[in-house]
Amino acid sequence: QNQVTSVAIKNSNDAPTISKHIYGHFAEHLGHCIYGGFFVGDTSKIPNTNGVRNDIVKALKELKIPNLRWPGGCFADTYHWKDGIGPKENRPTIVNQWWGGVTEDNSFGTHDFLNMCELLGAEPYLSGNVGSGTVQELADWMQYTNFGGKSPMSDLRRKNGRTEPWKVKYWGIGNEAWGCGGNMTADYYANEYRKFATFMSDWNNTGGLIKIASGANSSDYNWTETLMKNIPLNMLGGVGVHHYAVIDWNKKGADVAFTEKEYFLTMQSALKMEELVTKHAAVMDKYDPEKKVAMIVDEWGAWYDVQKGTNPGFLYQQNTMRDAVLAGATLNIFNNHADRVKMANLAQCVNVLQAVILTDKAKMITTPTYHVMKMYSVHQDAKLIPIEFTSPLYIFNGQTIPAVSMSVSKDQKGLIHISLVNIDAVNKNKIEIDTASLGAQKYTASIITASKLQEYNSFENPDKIVPVAFKGFENKKGKLEITIPPFSVLVLEGK
Ligand code: AHR
């Protein structure tokens, strides 16, 4: 395409900071996310620290993982945390009723998770059990993890080998309360939330607890409205939103052997995030014009049919260049809405759905989505620079979606970062950014792309898709002209 799209840089005096927590992750007791993923046990030959794989810790630290949500998802509303503390041989086994009906021996519990977060340098985000748990159980969990003084729960923690409290700041009050978390109505859940939140204390130890309400399913704006209307704002730190990019819940399509039509439909569903965030934010603005309550997109990502031959309850899927494009475009949406979106969690971190890491026994690979998150980590805690442009269109079978996605920020060292995605599966796109006001003189760039959308990193060829230097741009007198190849994600750095 010869048409050039002009991008204007807007005044950024009042622009928000892009919270690093937008780049968060999610680990559920589901398939091989925890067991056989993060956690192999301390008797494993795979190098580990207290049972947690060292290679995964290293890879996630390189990603600058800011937070990790656990233990679910749907699993969270069946999870009783006291099953997962104390000597491992005494822990009860349970059945994971949501995910494959497998036996769960509780060998990975609260200490294992919170110590792992310390290894990762990530903030833990605990999902409390509202669906089948009690207020007392959740209050006890908070005392166990956060209280420094003498009390029944902090004494129990010490007895189990941990002196200092972990100081957990982020707490979810249930998960998908409209579905697997209890099939509640919004009104009923708002009352449950108020009750649970009343008894939650941070024991003066976190510098401010963030209590997060189980949010809407995609476009259920009434859910958000009911919570915002009925929960006093001083009890509400964040409101969740869940949205998966899915073609059709009854026929999700293959992870690798997909057609351009399926690619288009996946991206159409992913880009709906722009509308969702905008409209949920408008509802929140009505009740909270000062934007004190965070929007937390605590589950997002692509959901395809499971790989042939794998347990349908384990949600194992491969991760191709399609996923890289999806991640790049979604993260740009979150960056551009950083005034309200303060946290997001990709589903899920290891071996489940749109994973950044896949493992096969001792082998571990990073996926194209991992590389995008790593390239974009430069936006973490940087100041957003608002932009304005009209995207060219990606046209497929008479239907259209925007082809170009972009966000810009300035980090604490003054470096400018521009992340750009060309979603179009066939055509390159040319853009021209008016960079005069950004101050940077020199630009360098890296790109992630592939020869086919369906390509992926395999255990045999783990570095097939990795970022490389990109030279397809010209820096001319305050204007940056960039030709973005089809289905590619790039990040430019200006200094
Ligand atoms: O991420 C998989 C599942 O999707 C989660 O357990 C649930 O919250 C959502 O429906």
TrEMBL record:
Q: Does the keyword Oxidoreductase apply?
A: no
Claim: Hydrolase is one of the keywords in the record: yes
One Pfam annotation, family name? Answer: Alpha-L-AF_C
Known catalytic reactions: Hydrolysis of terminal non-reducing alpha-L-arabinofuranoside residues in alpha-L-arabinosides
Q: What is its EC number?
A: 3.2.1.55
> Which key words are in the record?
Carbohydrate metabolism, Glycosidase, Hydrolase, Signal
Alphabetized SMART domains for the sequence: Alpha-L-AF_C
Q: Which PANTHER family match?
A: ALPHA-L-ARABINOFURANOSIDASE C-RELATED, INTRACELLULAR EXO-ALPHA-L-ARABINOFURANOSIDASE 2
Q: Which family does it belong to?
A: Belongs to the glycosyl hydrolase 51 family.
| Summary of subunit composition and partner proteins | Homohexamer; trimer of dimers.
* The protein's name: non-reducing end alpha-L-arabinofuranosidase
Ranked from the top, the taxonomy reads: Bacteria, Pseudomonadati, Bacteroidota, Flavobacteriia, Flavobacteriales
